[in-house]
Amino acid sequence: MEIYRDSHDRALTDYPRPSVAVDTAVLTVPPRGALSVLLVRAGAGVGAGTGTGTGTGAGTGAGTTWRLPGTFLHEGELLADAVLRSLRTKAGVSGLSPRQLHVFDDPARDNRGWVLSVAHLDVVPWPSLTIDESLAKVVPVADAGALPYGHNDILDQAVATLRTRYASAPDPAGLLEHPFTLRQLKHLHETVAGEPLMRDSFRRAMEPQLAATGELAAGTVGKPARLFEMFTEACSATGYR
Length: 241
Known about the structure:
Layout: E1 19-28, E2 36-41, E3 66-67, E4 70-72, H1 79-91, E5 99-104, E6 115-123, E7 136-140, H2 151-168, E8 180-181, H3 182-193, H4 199-206, E9 210-216, E10 226-230, H5 232-238
Parallel strand pairs: 1-6
Antiparallel strand pairs: 1-2, 1-4, 2-3, 2-7, 5-6, 8-10, 9-10
């Protein structure tokens, strides 16, 4: 096979190249909880421990370093395959469909060396997220702390992206079970936004994008609240997953 050379008679291997990593921010909202992120133990992998389950993870132990699930790209491997491999082996998570978020290319971002990270994002309903609790945990974004390898920048952008989506569309990631009340929807959006939202402004923005089921919520105090579902068109146009 003929080796390609550029106008300076240099082959591709003559140029310095970064290592390529994939790192994934998996966001979720636990019942009555805050916007949360999946973290894994640095150096962890399937086979390092036992036990699976959905929850906030195992104890942290002194000196444990937590980070986003990620891995280095293998030769000949697709980015999407590397992402799924890292989630499976580092967190015991399968069945997700992360999407590319951003390429983080600052040469000084990773203290291990010149590492280019192709970051991904997935937003997962709490009942659908099953983790290996010996490897991973789910913590509120606000409690993630200082993460290695530039992962705080990835997490910040993931949260900002999700908040932008939730600012204009009702539950685009499908975190709520259907049907739901407008109050439940507002509470979810406030959880994602991390701040209170004006009730009337929220209703005016979201209600036209919802379909009333014609039914009322049972077991509520006071006047029964109407139940809603998403318009199929709105979900397909704005949904993240």
